[in-house]
Design brief:
103 residues, alpha+beta, Alpha-Beta Plaits, 4 strands, 25% helix
Amino acid sequence: MKWTLVRYKAKPDQAQENQRLSAAVFGELQQKAPPGLHYAVFRLPDDTFVHLASLEDGAAPLSALETFRAFSSGVRERCLEPPVAAQPVLVGNYGMLAADKAN
């Protein structure tokens, strides 16, 4: 399983639009229910957004979704601090994640 964590800070006047575009991604995920893809987005009080995704081997990536491509196309223009991606290693999981399949 591959993990990706992305963090960025939205411009105050763009944070609500960023949240709306993120919500659209979840709408498409609910409709299509792609297997092997797990995804969450968090918004902090200072308009920092944190995206956490896990992808099982062979699963289609988020970029396969039309709504995610729409979200991604203008994300840099909505940001004060640009997106920074990292591949975190799961150290521990106590009931937070649905499946503990970390390597």
